[in-house]
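Narrative summary of target 7.
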Amino acid sequence: MAIKQSSFPLRVLADLSLLFCILLAPVCLATPATAPATLLQLKSSLTDPEGVLSGWSLEADVCSWHGITCLPGEVDIVTGLNLSGYGLSGVIPPAIGGLISIESIDLSSNSLTGPILPELGLLEKLRTLLLFSNSLTGTIPPELGLLKNLEVLRIGDNRLHGEIPPHLGNCTELETLGLAYCQLNGSIPAELGKLSHLQQLVLDNNTLTSGIPEQLAGCASLRDLSVANNMLQGNIPSFIGSFSNLQSLNLANNQFSGGIPAEIGNLSGLTYLNLLGNGLTGAIPEELNRLSQLQVVDLSMNNISGNLSISTAQLKSLKYLVLSGNLLDGAIPEDLCAGDSSSLENLFLSGNNLGGSIEALLNCGALQSIDASNNSFTGAIPPNIDRLSGLVNLALHNNSFTGSLPPQIGNLSNLEILSLFHNGLTGKIPPEIGRLQKLKLLFLYENQMSGTIPDELTNCTSLEEVDFFGNHFHGSIPERIGNLKNLAVLQLRQNDLSGPIPASLGECRSLQALALADNRLSGALPETFGQLAELSVVTLYNNSLEGPLPESLFQLKNLTVINFSHNRFSGSLVPLLGSGSLAVLALTNNSFSGVIPTSLARSRNMVRLQLGGNRLAGAIPAELGNLTRLTMLDLSFNNFSGDIPAELSSCKELTHLKLDGNRLTGSVPSWLGALRSLGELDLSSNALTGDIPAEIGNCSGLLKLSLSDNHLSGSIPPEIGRLTSLNVLNLNKNGLAGAIPAALRQCDKLYELRLSENALEGPIPPELGKLPELQVILDLSRNKLSGEIPASLGDLVKLERLNLSSNRLDGQIPPSLLKLTSLHLLNLSGNLLAGAVPKGLSGFPAASFAGNDELCGAPLPRCAPSSSARRLPGTVVAVIVAGIAVVSAAVCVALLYTMLRVWSNWRAVSVSSSDGEESAHGGGKWGAAAAGDGKYWTKVGSPVSSAAGEKHSSGSETSVLHAGKSTEAAGAAKS
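Modeled conformation, tokenized:
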């Protein structure tokens, strides 16, 4: 029966039993004699895989049943039920409420399901209820608050949800309350403060919120308070210091803030203090040093600041001190381990701001583990480090230690972990290191160490991991490296090692990861490599290894990552394909030959296949389409031929597809548009034909698209404008025609645009000036582009190279190009540009402007004076010239007509004259007008000659003026 009230009177709870009697009459009529029947109902509700309940039968005395305890000297009075840890499943039946004499029920560590029944509230004599570590669901029934005699309630590690019922505060005899590892929420009920006998309160790993209620101070008998891994907030209450019997306090991984209360120093019996993973601030209170019984202190992963104020001179029992991940600064105090009485065995200080030397640690003679990593410690590793003779783990990585590794390190005979990576250590590895027979992990990577790897290292036969990455070790890999039979990881990458890989390496049968990349190793791969049956990762790239691969490699069935790139290996790929679990196969820049074996497609988990820069030939196998998890496929710069197989369309997760530098034919497949994850597509330098498919525009994540040096035709599809993430577009050296689509403006992440050596025509779209990230190059050279250079190109302020050469561009160079202050290469040669080169571009060589006959000014020859006037565009000049020709023709016709009229009149006068006088008078009159003083020809003939003579050098206004005068003279003559 569900009870919704948060505060339920005891009287009402007591009356529940009467209500149960009405509803559950069989249970209420139970007597001690009915216990066997009740237990048989329990048996029928359970699945018993181990048969522990097989003896439960009415033919035997119930007190003899497995897991049953009876009251001594009494018959059938069952007081105990213990079936813990037998793998039982099923549900607890309501009939269990009939075990009225029961005092202890333990059904823990099974697989029981269903709810915790409210009928358990009827078991008035129950003192212990253990249901933890099952799969029980539902809420905690408030009826458990009726169990007045209950002393132990442990029902954690189930799937319970909801809030902790405040009614549990009525179980006044409770000593242990365990509700950890459930899904309980809400706050800690204040009513629990009434449990004055409570010794253990364990609420770990729930989602409890709010803070620790002040009423909890009433639990004066507490010895163990654990509320770790919840979402509790607020300050740690100071009343915790009043729990005089408290031995263990665990508040880890909550959201407590503020300082650590000094009152914790009153907990004289405290042995365990865990406050890790909160938001605590302030300094470590000095009062902690009063806790002489303290054995474990963990204050890690907070925001505690100030100096390290712990002193084991007072904390004589302290064994574990964990202060990692705080804001502590200053040096390690000299009195951390004053005297010889310190018991400190484990010191964890990583991830603070501590500095100075670590000399003070040498006083902590009992230390077994030191983690002082990720600080700012300086100086050398003390030569007398061997004073810490019991040291097992030494982690000093990510500091600023200098100097060499002292040879005394070889005296730490118990050392198992030595982690010194990412410091400034120099010098050699001391050969004394070979005395560390128990050493398992040796991390020296990212230092400045040099010299050879000592042969004595091979005496450390317990070594499991060796990492020397990023140093300056030279010489060869020790010949006896095979002595390290337990070696699982060998990382020697990025050194200066030379010589062959020792054949003895094959004796390291436990080797799982081998990294020898970035060295100067040479020679062939030893046949013994085939013995490394556990090998999973092997990287040998950037060496000078050569020869065909040993066939024994085919026996390595556990290989997942192979990277042999940048070597001189040759022959077939087959020896590398024995494993069907390959995830990475990287062999770029070698001399492998033959075809790609179809068996490679067995590795269905392959994510990277990189075979570029080899001598592989034949068709690209269609079986590669089975590698549906492939993200990178690089087959570039080989001799592959044939079409791009359509089966690759199944590789939907491809992010990089590089097939450039082959002899592939056919078209660019339209199915590429379905590869929505594609970030790089490079099909350049092949023999592909046909159009660029518009579907490419569907690859919305594409960053690089290179189709250059093929035989593609047609126009550039405007759908490319949908590639708004595109950084590089390279369509050079094809047969593309038509206009450059203005839609490229939408590719506003472009920083490299190459469209040269095509047959593109029309004007340069001014929209290209709206590509704000264009930086590396804009190359439109060797096309048929015409018109003026758009002034908007001056807005490409990041541009470093601009090549518009070998087109049909005309007009002047726009002054806006002066804004391209990052430009260091400019080529406008081979066009029809005219006018003066803008002065700000005069620093570019003359070759940048060559082949433009009408250009002048530095770095070209100086402009003529008349060229200072702005040159008119070619189209305007053509119109003016045509106009002059038409007007000149009209003038000529008019003159011819006038001359004919004059001549006709003169003939008429001459013919009608009867004597010389009239002739003389007439001749004088008309002759003077026609030819006598030349005035008529001055008005008519001279302007025509002038106009014709100035046709190519005068402006349009002059030509029109002369044309007007000629027309006026012609009209006068006619009249």
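Confidence is low (pLDDT under 50) at residues 1-28, 867-872, 902-975.
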